């Protein structure tokens, strides 16, 4: 999961206008959840919801944020 976080982070670095940013933020959040790092996961989910509120990933992030892991 740590390698996934690094790879997904590169999406934003490559282009701040990439259409893949919502998906990468969501997957980073999931990776942190799988590492039992809930605070970090919630931070990425919150950023996703704030920056891309209408995206499909934001909808999933809202659900993931509420679920205890």
How would you summarize what this structure contains?
The chain has four helices and no strands. With 69 residues, the protein is mainly α.
How would you characterize this protein structure?
By secondary structure, this protein is mainly α. It has helices spanning 2-14, 21-34, 38-51, 56-66. Helix 2 packs parallel to helix 4. The chain is flat. The two termini are 16 Å apart.
Describe the SSE topology.
Layout: H1 2-14, H2 21-34, H3 38-51, H4 56-66
Helix pairs in contact: 1-2, 2-3, 2-4, 3-4
| Element-level helix/strand string | HHHH
The oligomeric state of the chains shown is: single chain
Largest sheet: none
Beta-strand percent range: under 5%
Q: Helix count, per DSSP?
A: 4
* Shape designation: flat
Low-pLDDT residue spans: none
Q: Helices and strands: which structural class? A: mainly alpha
Q: What percent of the residues sit in helical stretches (DSSP H or I)? A: over 70%
Q: Please tell me how large the radius of gyration is.
A: 11 Å
Average pLDDT works out at 93
**What is the distance, rounded to the nearest whole angstrom, between the alpha carbons of the first and last residues?**
16 Å
The number of E-state strands comes to 0
């Amino acid at each position: 999961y740590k390698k996934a976080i690094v790879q997904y982070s590169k999406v934003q670095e490559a282009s701040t206008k990439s259409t893949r940013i919502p998906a990468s933020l969501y997957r980073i959040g999931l990776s942190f959840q799988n590492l039992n790092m809930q605070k970090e996961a919630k931070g990425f989910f919150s950023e996703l919801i704030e920056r891309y509120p209408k995206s499909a990933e934001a909808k999933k992030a809202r659900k993931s944020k509420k679920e205890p892991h």
